[in-house]
Structure formats: structure tokens, C-alpha cells
Amino acid sequence: MCKEKLEEYSNVFWTGTPLSSVLFDLCDTRGCTSNDLLWYAITGVTDQYLRTSLSEDSYGKQIQSLKNAQERLNPNIIQKSKAESNSNSTVLINSDGVISYEPDLRFVLLRHWSVYNSMLNSNFIASRLGAWREKGRRQLELLLAKMAFPLNQCKSDYSAMDLEYRELLTLQLEKFAEEFNIQNFSFSSFTREFGYLLKISAADCVHSLRSILESPNSLNLSKTAQLNGNTPAWKNNFFFAFDAID
Fold it and tell me: What CA–CA distance (Å, rounded) separates 221 from 214?
């Protein structure tokens, strides 16, 4: 009976394709796409996926379509991967807003936080280890200990973490994923890189934009923006988020 009710609910609860993805497809048919428009589409699809409004199958199909567009708009990335095996090859890589197809971990703002806090505050870990309880926190610390990751390294900023631990993170998680019930801890996604200045994942971008849009107060970090005291907070935050997505 319970299973039938769940199936009935899932049949009528449906989320359509993100508007950003629809507009990107429209621009693509007219031959006027760009990396900016592709990034808007990627963040729209990623937002729905992180909200669990997309099934794995639907997300996989949309990601494959976006990956095809990414390869077409960022050909130098493919050239770079082909040249990696040949040390004598010299390839010019465009570093202005390059979008790459990369797997991402289901941990909140990992690159901008610490491994410990990122895992502790992620829905993925919380639902599997019960991280809101003391027992769940001990389980998380036990996982990190079995991975041979010192707790002081895990609680320091990810950017300040020793390189060896950052490089071994995914590999070590795979070793203990089944024991701690954290299989499928990664998912297909994208990153965008602006030279050596900034590299951000689609999930990080979504979390940042969502925090701006859902803030009850007006946010503005722009030195040039002129705020109107009568502007509603949601409208001001919408334009702030629109500027921040680039």
C-alpha cells in the first residue's frame, strides 16, 4: 500500500526542464551559443539535481547533452587531454572562462571550506551517518581515521590542506564507501575556470546563488551598484545573483 502511494505521488509530481536549459537549446539551434549561456544551463540543471527534482536517468540525459555542447564550445580542452600523453606537444589553452567536464563530490562547498565541515553539513553524509547526532560525528571521524587522514588536516581549509591528501581523497573514499554506506558519493558535473584566478564547480555556484536568492535581507557587494531604498529585497538579490553567476 505504501509503495503504491509513493508511485502515485511520483507520477504526478514532475519538474520540467530548467528555463536556462531550454533557452540554451533555442540559442544553439540559431547558432548563437556561448560559454556564458552554457554555464547558465549547467547551473539550472545542477540546481534541480541538488534539490532532488530530477531523477538520475533524467539528469544523466541532460548532462550528456550539455557535455556535447561543452566539447563543441571548448575544443582546446579536448586537445589538451590528447596532448597529455605526448610531452613534446604544445597546445594553446584558452583560460578565459573555460568549462570542463569533471566529476564532483556530494559535499557542500568542499573547495571553499574544510573536508570535515563540508562532509558534516552535506545532506548526503547526514542521511547516511546521522551526522546531526554525536554518534554520527564519531562515525565520520572514524571514516577519516580509516582513510588515514589526520583530523587537523581535515578541519583546515581545503586550499591549505596538504596536496597528498587532496589527491587521495576520492581514492580513499572509494575504499570505505561500502563499509560506511556512502556509495555514489560523486556525480557527473562541470567546472569553470578563469585562468589561475578562479575555478568553481557547478554545485558550488548553485549553493552560492541559492544563498543569495533565499536571503531575507538585501545583499549587495558591488561598489558601483546604486541601491534604491524602495527596491524589494528579493528583486535586489535576484540582480545581485545574476551578476554573481558570471
Answer: 16
Question: What's the CA gap between 170 and 231, in Å, rounded?
Answer: 45
Q: What is the dihedral of CA 68, 73, 75, 77, to 10 degrees?
A: -80
Q: Phi then psi for 97, rounded to 5 degrees?
A: 70, 35
Q: Can you list the positions of beta strands (E) in 43-147?
A: 98-105
Write the pLDDT tens digit of every residue in 153-172.
999 999 899 999 999 999 99
Give the mean pLDDT of the chain.
Answer: 84
Cell readout for 39 is 554555464
162 vs 218: CA distance, rounded Å:
38
pTM value > 0.70: yes
CA 10 – CA 238 distance, rounded (Å) = 31
Helix axes 35-50, 202-213, angle to 10 degrees: 70
Instruction: Give tens-digit pLDDT for 35-47.
Output: 999 999 999 999 9
**pLDDT at residue 205 tops 90:** yes
Grid cell 580542452 in the structure block, residue: 77
- Listed by start position, the domains of the chain span 107-184
Q: Please, are residues 202 and 190 in contact by the beta-carbon 8 Å criterion?
A: yes
Whole-angstrom distance, CA of residue 59 vs CA of residue 75:
24
